[in-house]
Structures are given as C-alpha cells and as structure tokens.
Design goal:
The structure holds two protein chains of two kinds.
Chain A: E1 2-5, H1 8-18, E2 22-29, E3 32-37, E4 48-53, E5 56-61, H2 78-81, E6 85-94, E7 97-102, E8 110-115, H3 117-130, H4 140-144, E9 148-153, H5 163-166, E10 178-185, E11 195-202, H6 205-211, E12 217-218, H7 221-235, H8 247-253, H9 259-266, H10 272-276, E13 283-289, E14 295-302, E15 312-313, E16 316-317, H11 322-341, H12 351-354, H13 362-371
Parallel strand pairs in A: 2-8, 8-9, 9-10
Antiparallel strand pairs in A: 1-11, 1-12, 2-3, 4-5, 6-7, 6-14, 10-11, 13-14, 15-16
Helix pairs in contact in A: 8-11, 9-11
Chain B: E1 8-13, H1 19-25, H2 29-37, E2 39-43, E3 55-61, H3 67-78, E4 80-86, H4 87-92, H5 104-111, E5 135-137, H6 144-155, H7 167-173, H8 179-183, H9 199-202, H10 219-228, H11 233-239, H12 248-264
Parallel strand pairs in B: 1-2, 1-3, 3-4, 4-5
Helix pairs in contact in B: 11-12
Classes of the chains: A alpha+beta, B alpha/beta.
The complex binds iron/sulfur cluster (4 copies).
C-alpha cells in the first residue's frame, strides 16, 4: 500500500484544491473539534484529543503531534449535505396569482477530510434516505454529487464509541476515495528519528488519480503491519458496547417496559441527540410572508421527534408524553429503521450520549430493557 | 378584516420596563412597513396622538400589579378584537413577580414613608390570569424578528412561526458547541422556550431562561444535572427566580429547591 509522510498530506490537500474542491474537516473551535473549512493541515487539531463521557466533552493536549488523534465531535457531515436551515423557494405576488422563484443550487464540490468509518456508514444511510429512498430530496443529491472523501481509520476510540457493536468500524471498508491510517512511531522504536506517516488505501479511480499527484512510496511489510495494529488497538478500546441480538424484536416486545417511564424522568426533550445524530433526517417546513404580503418564502429546518410540533396533527400532539418521544426516537434508531430501510439507524458514533445535556445513554437504555425483560 | 380599511393596532403598557415596546420601535425598517399596513392607533411610547377604539390588534406589555390596572386590562380586552401579550412581564408576571414569594405589606412599610398612599396588589400576575389572551409572545425582551413575524402572521391570517421547543434546537442549528457539555457551564437552554436564536450560548454563556419555559420542560432533571456541575440548592432557587419566576414550571422548581434548602439548613 502507498504511504505518505506527514508533510505530503499538505500536497494532497493542494492536489484537491487544484481540482476545485472545497476542503472541510476537523478543526478546533470553542473547545471542541468540529468540521469546518480547512486551508491546510495547520488548521487540523494538531496534537489535540478529546475525552468523552455521557453529557461531558473536553479537549486535551496529546503527548504527540497527531493530526487525527481524537474521536468524532458534535457536528456531523450532515451539516454540509443536509443543511440545518435552507430556503427552498420564494414566491412573488403577480396580479391574481404568484410566481415561484426557485433556488439555484450548484454542486459545491466538497472534499471531506478525516471521515470516520461510522460516518461513512451514516452517509450511506442518508444516501439511501435522500437519494434512493421513496422521496428523493431536492437538495441533498446536489450537495452530495461531487463529494470527495478522505477517510481516516480511527487511531483511538472515544469514551462513548460503540462502532464495533454496530459493525460500522473502526476500519473503513467502503464509501471513500482514499483512506488513511495515521502511524506515529517514537524514536526509540524506529531507526533514527520519530516517524509520522499515513498508510493509504485507495477506494476509487478518482482517489488513485489524485494520489498520483502526490509523492509517495510503497509501504513495507512492517509499515502495513503498524497500520493494522492501530486499528486493532482502537477496536479493543470501545467506550461502550451494545448487544444487538434480535434488537428489533426486543424493542417491539417491550413497548410497555417500565424503563421508558424511568428514562422519561431524565429526558429533557431538548432534541440535542437528534440534532447531533449523523443519520437523523427529519425536517420541518416553514412558510413565511413579509409584512406587505407581496413576498413569501418556504424554509426547511432540521426537526426532531422530541418536539411537540413534530407529531402535531389537527386537534393536537400525538406524542405529548416525554416517554412516547424518547421511545419513538430509540425505537426508530434501532428497530423501525430496519423495517424502513433495511439497516440500523444507529452507527454507534456515540454523539447522542456525549451531547445529551444529562448524559442519557442509548446503550444503557437497551441494556436495562434487555436485562429486565419480563 | 375588511378590505381597504387598515387594521387598527394599539400598544398597551402595564407594569413593565418598556423594553418590549422598544423592540417594536427598534424594528426601524420594518416599522415603516408596519405603519404602511396598519394604523398605529394607540402607542404612547411612540406618539401622543390617540385614535379611539375598538382595535383590531392589541399588543400588551407588562403585568398586573395594581387594582386600577386590574380594571384597565378588562377595558383593553373589551376594546380589542385580537389581544397579544408580549414579553415576560405580560406572559409570566416579570421580575416584579418576585414579590409573589414575599410579604408585600412588610416591604412597603420599610420602603415608603407613608405606606398608606401605596395602592398595590400582593402579586404581579400575567395578563392571561385576568383576561383571555389570543397569543402569547415570550421573551425578556421579546425578539424583534418574532414580533414582526407575529404582526405579519396577523395581517395575513396565518399562524405565527414561533416554535415552543428548546433553545438547544436553535443552538444546534447555528452550529454552536454546547457550553454545558463542552465547558461545564450551567445552561437553561434545555428547558427554555426558543425564540432568541440561542444568543447566550453563541457568546459562550449559559442560557438564563429569559424566554421562559418551553413546552414540556423537565426542570427537575436539569436541576439534578446542575447539582452535579456544582450548583447548590440555594443557587437553584435563584436560577429559576429570574424574569420568569412566576411561570408555573419555573415557580414550582424554585419552590422545590427552597424547601430542600430549608431542610438542609
Ligand atoms: S443514535 Fe447516537 S450513537 Fe447512534 S448514530 Fe445516532 S448519534 Fe450516533
Ligand atoms: S429518531 Fe426522530 S428525528 Fe431521528 S430520524 Fe427518527 S423520527 Fe426523525
Ligand atoms: S435523550 Fe438527552 S439529548 Fe435527547 S432529548 Fe432527551 S435529554 Fe435531550
Ligand atoms: S449550550 Fe445550552 S442551549 Fe445550547 S445545546 Fe447546550 S444546553 Fe442547549
């Protein structure tokens, strides 16, 4: 397999920029590692890592200069492909009727840098919903169109990760153009100085074509083995586990389990879990008029099954209790999603656990139901 | 409303700081458009010229704290087809509702040389406790974009887009990093009504709850978590005794911590 040294990574970024790609990837912002525009590798969280627990996230300095030495942060890639707030069209009054002014959307040519395996699975899930599903989206396919993905095999698991349980990582298996494994070898192991390099796997012809522009060498057996060890170590460090055995029927059988009442005493129905979840796809539509009534706009915003409005139909809200909303969320993620799309709606990224303001843990809730099932 | 005739709008003030009316004056660009579409018939903060009622739309700021205001709000209601309360005072009693937790007679006797001249009620109460209200716009002060939205919606006979979910949703839509999870800063966002656009968390501060309780607020769960962040019972009483102290969910929560605090003493 090809290998790139640390400094050649900037050349890879340049090769993408020359092809007109807009680079986005992890960067340190307001005390968290979030996905945003990248100019060079200097914008990456060099030498930083994160600590994650239920309802708690902190960034921390690492002992080394790793570029990808942390797990996933609060923003997922859906922020780019399925925008949080978006105008769908405008309308102007004309005589007795009105004229629709459509939104012009050009493919933005995104290049995502540092996509993790669980996130590749999440993107594949949203592709299914927004591109090949029964109701293709008007915007997502355009945003998705030229997307170039440089994935990264995780070098360490986060405190709330459970991709091994969900069969979605930590090693990227599909859905990328290139995937990197970051290897850091201190001087005492390597001959001579510290070594910092990336073992590359090519996923597509596009990936191979870009890589040709960047000086690289072939990995030795030892280097390939070092990359393998990185992923194996990560797989052994999962912060959480979730037993998925017969999970669909487990949840269907336990629709009236008392645990739903218990979790309802803690759940704030704040919707953070659905906002950070990389697969949640729900949105609402708002029509606005201006004061003159000459101009109207239709906007789309991320929505969540935790709001009262979400299940409002004529006469009232169907899921008015906290219990029914939490149950809808978890049952959709882990059970009804399977009936709907043929896969789990959860990729084990752990975001909903970390970013729940009161640390509610989906793996713990499943465990509680499984262990106390009557 | 009839074609051709501009709807008449009135703005009324009860016990309040005028901040919400200021939000209307602050609308600047939109204010001209509003004046173009509605006849501003009664708005003393802006003009002394007053057109007699009845009014198609009344915006009511402030809470009821005196016997004469308790009568006046009935008159306003009778003169108004559509009555909208604006701000924490009008929707929840405001900061002056702190008196509801104290003995008013006692502090009047301390503050005023001639307490017998003071005519005041023992409580500060929201407008909806006195008359029926057609729509409530929460916030301290209200958000001017939301106010324009409510007026636009009224003019065009549609429902205003003022969602009652948490501030967290707005916070996430903006792409903020959560100050509670990432910094350990206590934040009331998860129990607070959206509308401000998550201003405080956008400036690295916790939400103070100035928009009042959201739909189905789980204040006790949030309080337990704040306890883990190091906030004590006495501080929890104060946290929920801000401008929305008398809104039911916040009132019950502060009272629970007051009882707990008394027990702990
Ligand atoms: S449900 Fe939670 S762990 Fe699963 S994909 Fe969504 S955010 Fe990640
Ligand atoms: S869990 Fe809720 S917000 Fe997420 S996709 Fe399902 S219904 Fe939508
Ligand atoms: S599970 Fe947590 S993040 Fe999700 S709605 Fe409940 S309190 Fe909010
Ligand atoms: S900062 Fe506050 S409002 Fe924003 S998501 Fe966190 S708890 Fe909610």
């Amino acid at each position: 397999m090809p290998i790139l040294d640390r400094n050649s990574l900037d050349l890879l970024f340049d090769a993408l920029k020359r092809r007109g790609f807009n680079l986005v990837g992890p960067t340190l912002h307001d005390g968290a590692i979030v996905y945003d525009a990248l100019a060079s590798t200097a914008d990456l969280p060099v030498g930083w890592t994160d600590e994650q627990e239920g309802g708690r996230y902190r960034v921390k300095k690492r002992a080394d200069e790793a570029l990808f030495g942390y797990a996933v942060g609060p923003r997922s890639w859906k922020k780019f492909l399925f925008q949080p707030v978006q105008r769908l069209w405008q309308a102007r009054r004309e005589g007795e009727g009105f004229r629709i002014i459509p939104e012009e959307e050009k493919p933005p040519k995104w290049a995502f840098i540092g996509v993790r395996s669980c996130e590749l699975h999440a993107i594949a899930i949203q592709d299914k919903v927004f591109i090949s599903g029964p109701a293709p989206d008007s915007s997502y396919p355009t945003q998705r169109k030229d997307l170039f993905i440089i994935a990264v095999n995780c070098g360490q698991a986060g405190g709330t990760c459970f991709c091994v349980s969900m069969n979605t990582g930590p090693k990227a298996t599909a859905g990328y153009d290139l995937v990197l494994t970051e290897v850091l070898e201190p001087a005492r192991l390597a001959i001579g100085a510290d070594r910092h390099y990336f073992v590359v796997e090519v996923g597509t012809d596009r990936g191979a074509e870009v890589l040709r522009d960047v000086p690289h060498t072939e990995a030795t057996e030892q280097e390939n083995a070092a990359a393998e060890r990185v992923v194996e170590k990560t797989a052994s460090q999962m912060g959480r586990t979730l037993d998925t055995t017969d999970i669909k029927n487990l949840l269907y059988r336990n629709f009236e389990h008392p645990r739903w009442d218990e979790v309802a005493t803690r759940c704030l129905t704040c919707a953070n879990c659905t906002m950070v979840c990389p697969t949640c796809f729900c949105s609402t539509v708002e029509d606005v008029t201006d004061l003159t009534g000459e101009h109207a706009e239709r906007w789309r915003k991320w929505d969540s099954c935790f709001t009262m409005d979400f299940s409002y139909i004529h006469g009232g809200t169907v899921r008015s209790s906290v219990k029914s909303r939490y149950r809808q969320w978890m049952t959709h993620k882990l059970a009804t999603w399977i009936d709907q799309f043929g896969t789990s709606g959860c990729v084990g990224c752990g975001r909903c656990i970390t970013w729940c303001p009161v640390g509610i843990d989906i793996t713990e809730e499943v465990r509680a139901i499984r262990e106390t099932e009557k | 409303m009839g074609q051709g005739r501009k709807p008449k709008m009135a703005v009324w003030k009860f016990a309040s700081c005028d901040g919400c009316q200021l939000s209307l004056l602050d609308c600047e660009d939109e204010l001209l458009k509003i004046a173009d579409r509605v006849q501003i018939a009664h708005f003393l903060e802006a003009s002394r010229a007053v057109v007699k009622g009845p009014y198609d739309l009344s915006l009511v700021e402030g809470s009821i704290t005196t016997p004469s205001d308790a009568v006046r709000i009935q008159e306003v209601r009778r003169a108004s087809k559509f009555l909208v309360t604006i701000g924490a005072c009008a929707t929840a009693g405001g900061i002056q509702a702190l008196r509801n937790f104290q003995d008013v007679k006692e502090f009047i006797s301390i503050v005023y040389a001639r307490p017998e001249y003071i005519q005041t009620l023992n409580t500060s109460t929201p407008i909806a406790d006195h008359v029926s209200v057609d729509f409530e716009l929460q916030g301290c002060p209200i958000d001017k974009r939301q106010l324009v939205e409510v007026i636009s919606a009224f003019l065009h006979g549609r429902k205003p887009n003022t969602l009652s979910h948490s501030v967290c949703v707005e916070c996430k839509l903006r792409g903020n990093v959560c100050v509670m999870v990432a910094h350990g800063t206590p934040c009331l966002g998860p129990v607070t009504h959206a509308g401000c656009g998550a201003i405080c968390p956008s400036y690295d501060r916790g939400c103070y709850g100035c928009f009042g309780p959201k739909e189905t607020p789980n204040t006790s769960s949030l309080s337990r978590w704040w306890g883990r962040l190091g906030v004590g019972e006495q501080d929890l009483v104060r946290v929920f005794r801000g401008v929305n102290a008398f809104a039911e969910a916040f009132r019950k929560e502060s009272e629970a911590h007051e009882r707990q605090n008394d027990q702990d003493q």
